[in-house]
Write a structure and sequence with these properties.
alpha/beta; 2 domains; two-stranded antiparallel sheet; 14 helices; 12 strands; 44% helix; 12% strand; binds L-rhamnitol; binds zinc ion
Length: 421
């Protein structure tokens, strides 16, 4: 796209928003502050580097497709992430899983991992001036094969995963300490059952006990922040998931941890956007796993749909940007993986830009006066305002490809790098 055209379009858009009392320059400054934690696992289909050719195994999550170019080594993964970041305006963070350590070809079991295995990533992040987030990996492992980890009735299995998770929190805290920005450690476990269990209470009390043990180790909030992630169902856990939303919401409120809202983890007719204003009244901070649920799958590439738009609006309307940590969680191997990242991350950024461009004060005034027709019409009118012109300008001033220009960049990377792997 031509620079002059982008600038001209922005100028006109700026005037339109100004008429509604919105200062686009200020909005772009706020957008600059919004960091998105990129989930490293879209580059390699959640395989990890524990042993070569590792694949996602069980745990109720699945990657479909075999598009060429999957990252097979840490070097390739880092190159891909650099490419992704070069195509995104603003500054992001990186979200790692425990299976992405540098194990030098040795088999280091999950209950033996240490901060040293992640020093390379810390250095990598330091060079780029970005923060790191972390996750225990309680799936793709023989001790997770029967579908239970932290809630297992087998004390040895439970002990193994408790030790793993404790070590992961220690690794996260080290990341936060060295990088000067707290690392968020997120716990998601696959535990659940395909068929109807009769003793849910015992399973959930075991999970509670395991979490109490894990969180008995304290870290300063400036190094580590803890979050817990619920799910409605997964493949193989259709009838019951131990870590349900009720379970974790209760746990988070009582123990003052963050809660992770993965919007692919709820009933399709539930609005995750609606949950934000409730949960924020009872926990200090939230973590989002932005994704797109499609029928049974919770992990399609994020797009700018109603769900995402509402989530961003609810956060901005509640003036809660500083209490919501934004992460992504999708994995699709049926298309160019770099492209998937760029589409998903840009969609998240556009959703927040859209929310920041909303004339909230005018809308609130209508609402307070019971002027419901006026409120609805303004909400509808906002849908056709020149959001794209502001977004294009934001990309331009950030020196990243504007509009569809990133397609050619990704095609070039596919030809020169991905197809040669
Ligand atoms: C699974 C959860 C979880 C994982 C990642 C890999 O349903 O969403 O967050 O996707 O940790
Ligand atoms: Zn998730």
């Amino acid at each position: 796209m031509k620079k002059e055209q982008i600038k001209r379009s922005y100028q006109l858009a700026k005037e339109q928003y100004a008429e509604l009392g919105i200062d686009t320059e200020k909005v772009l400054k706020v957008l600059d502050q919004i960091q998105i934690s990129l989930h490293c696992w879209q580059t390699d289909d959640v395989g990890g580097f524990e042993k070569s050719g590792a694949e996602l195994g069980g745990g109720g999550i699945q990657v479909t497709g075999n598009f060429p170019g999957k990252a097979k080594t840490i070097v390739q993964m880092r190159a891909d992430l650099d490419k992704v970041m070069s195509l995104l305006p603003g500054k992001q963070r990186l979200n790692l899983h425990a299976i992405y350590g540098e194990f030098d070809g040795k088999l280091v079991d999950r209950d033996k991992i240490e901060p040293g295995h992640f020093q390379g990533w810390i250095n990598w992040a330091k060079e780029r001036g970005i923060g790191l987030d972390f996750n225990c990996t309680c799936f793709s492992h023989p001790l997770a094969d029967d579908g239970f980890t932290l809630s297992s009735k087998n004390p040895g299995v439970r002990k193994f995963w408790i030790e793993h998770t404790k070590r992961c929190r220690a690794i996260g805290a080290e990341m936060g300490k060295q990088l000067g920005t707290p690392s968020i450690h997120n716990i998601w476990i696959p535990d659940g059952s395909k068929d109807t269990p009769v003793d849910r209470y015992t399973l959930r009390s075991l999970l509670k006990k395991s979490l109490d043990d894990i969180f008995s180790v304290k870290y300063p909030k400036k190094y580590l922040k803890d979050s817990i992630e619920s799910k409605l169902f997964g493949i193989g856990s259709e009838s019951m998931v131990v870590g349900s939303h009720d379970f974790y919401l209760g746990y988070a409120v009582k123990n003052n941890t963050m809660i992770t809202l993965d919007n692919g983890h709820f009933h399709p007719t539930e609005q995750v956007g609606d949950k934000i204003s409730s949960i924020l009244l009872f926990v200090d901070e939230l973590l989002l796993h932005l994704t797109r649920g499609v029928r049974w799958d919770s992990d399609h590439v994020l797009t700018l749909n109603d769900e995402l738009i509402l989530m961003a609006q609810e956060i901005v309307r509640a003036k809660a940007l500083n209490r919501v940590n934004i992460g992504l969680d999708f994995f699709d191997a049926s298309l160019n993986r770099i492209g998937a990242y760029v589409i998903g991350t840009r969609s998240a950024q556009i959703a927040f830009l859209n929310a920041l461009l909303e004339p909230v004060e005018s809308l609130k005034k209508f609402e307070e006066k019971g002027m419901n027709f006026e409120r609805l019409s303004l909400l509808e009118l906002m849908k056709t305002k020149p959001l794209g012109a502001v977004w294009d300008y934001y990309c331009l001033i950030n020196g990243v490809p504007v509009g569809h220009d990133y397609i050619a960049e990704i095609e070039k990377y596919e030809k020169e790098v991905l197809l040669k792997r």
